[in-house]
Amino acid sequence: MMKLLKDFFIVSYCSVTIYIVFFARRRRGLSERFLNVVPIKYKLVELAKLSPHFDKEWYNFYLNLFGNIALFVPFPLLIFLVIGVNESYKFIFISFFTSLLIEIMQYTFKVGVADIDDILLNTIGAIVGVALMRGIGRLNIHA
Questions:
Q1: pTM higher than the cut 0.85
Q2: Is residue 60 very low, low, confident or very high in pLDDT (cuts 50, 70, 90)?
Q3: 39 and 120 Cβ atoms separated by less than 8 Å
Q4: What is the pLDDT of residues 26-49, one digit of tens each?
Q5: What is the 3-state secondary structure (H, E, C) of the chain?
Q6: Residues in domain VanZ-like (predicted)?
């Protein structure tokens, strides 16, 4: 039963993540590549341009901000289940480079915006995931 749950989690998480980062409707139909290599600057510019009233633009801003974090919270568990890593710095290192690879692929295939902020937010999500795993205490995660 545990193997079935493990396999279900792995397949589900990977499928949802691949869909979100490569195939979601907002990712389709780009005619040119977009690249942001300046951390935080464009998020602040985007925030300053938002209307003073909460609307769809605010919703999209927060969805992008917190969605990038939430997307990678389960990632350390995936790494643990698939390759057996159990050291915090390795989870973070693998998460960072996986996010970097995703952004490179998005740029290469003109799918979404290749954004340094996404890499930072994904890595923050992985750090939260590691903290949760360590907090649960059932997994022997080393600092």
A1: yes
A2: confident
A3: yes
A4: 656 667 788 888 889 988 888 888
A5: CHHHHHHHHHHHHHHHHHHHHHHCHHHCCCCCCCEECCCCHHHHHHHHHCCCCCCHHHHHHHHHHHHHHHHHCCHHHHHHHHHCCCEHHHHHHHHHHHHHHHHHHHHHCCCCCEEHHHHHHHHHHHHHHHHHHHHHCCCCCEC
A6: 11-134
Give yes or no for a contact between 94 and 113, defined as CB atoms under 8 angstroms apart: no
Q: Which amino acid is at 104?
A: I
Domain positions in the chain are 2-136
Exposure on the CB side of residue 121, measured as CA atoms within 13 A = 19
Tokens of 127: 């750090």
In order of 31, 107, 123, the CA distances from 103 in angstroms are 17, 6, 13
